[in-house]
Amino acid sequence: MAGSVSFAGPTVTPEYARTVARTAYLWGWPLVNMHNRRVAMNQLAEPGLLAGIVPAGPPGTLNMLGDYLRPEERLVACPDQDVVHGFGVLDGRLEPSVVQVPEFGDRFWVYQAVDQRTDSFARLGAVYRTAPGFYLLAHDSWAGSVPAGITGVFRYDTRCGAVIPRVFLDDTARDRAVIAPLVDRITMYPLSEFDGSVRIADRSSAPSFGAGSATRGRHERQWVDPEQFFCVLGEVLDEVPARPGEQALYARLRAVLAAAAHDREIAEVLRQAAVDTDAAVGELFEFRNIGIPVARHWTTRHNGAAFGNDYLSRTAMAKANIFAGTPDETACYYQDLDDAGDRLHGARTYTVHFPAGQLPPVRGFWSLTVYNSRHLFHSNELDRYSLGTRNRDLAYGDDGSLTLTVGGAGPSDPIQLANWLPAPDDEFSLVLRAYWPESGILDGSWAPPAVTPRV
Question: Angle at Cα 204 formed by Cα 202 and Cα 208, nearest 5°?
């Protein structure tokens, strides 16, 4: 058969390899993304800050910020400024990690822990009424003894994962002072260092690691290089065990990888297929192309961080808004269009009107955030990127309604200015987040209001 090669494995034609490669890229993009984040964190010797602004640490540890993420951040798309963030990675080939949970009182908090598939595997947060204590994050293969003093154990089955603490912060100096001692008690460290005592982290001298891609460029850092995708996919297949029903998929992927190892033409077919398919993944970046349609052109998702075999949603969210929480932790609504179906553009002014009693139904809090066309913050003189519960100076109507304005020139009236979100003079997107959503969101009976252009 012309153009094919035979070796110890099955015969593979270039066209078959191309077809499988497209599936492999759409299926494996989030897994390779997570793999490459772990590899990057392996370069760090201790917890610190990338480029002085992004928390990071070697596998098995985490670091915390003491304030909101800065708009220069480029390591993750769709950052938010509602919470204080932390970040750490797990490596299942190392010993388990202990995460410390302090007493948060009635403050919203969650420690998101996701495996290499970006699925959550732990329930740690206000939503779950988690008690303060020490929690063990262990790979399924770990057969050691759980020491006394460990409050609970959560298992994961992939090589790597990520742990992302989030703690609500009012946009006030007073709340920053209140939250500081809580943040200092959010830690993660190897099990061998556990002695049952509460740790208080001194992050005042945390090192800053040079990482130009953490703050430079117009786009999120490129965590997946299509040119190199198939060079690491075999390693990723070893790191992420096949789920029930995936055995045949794994066999097809391994077959084309084996063929590529013996045939340069097949290897080139895989490389080119990854480059070509990356354009399709780019289309999934647009909010209007993904998720579940909601009224007035909004979209949402019902399986965030719980994707299972929904590979399309998994890759779409990994591209557009990786590390979004599970729906019971955070419901997200995404918007690219105004009420007429036209693309949002910062040259126009839009209103988002919540009638009295129709704010997002939450037990936690809510926010509306503006992103530029790359799903990153748009730097502005107000240093303002979202509005919501954390803002104590919002102006409500006499009837209890709330109208936010987005884009266009900033209002001159200070009262109206408090309700205004700056937008870039370009296409932009909105995300409405509802933390700890109530039944109106969970059952679909509530939906966000229209984004209406002002005439």
Answer: 115
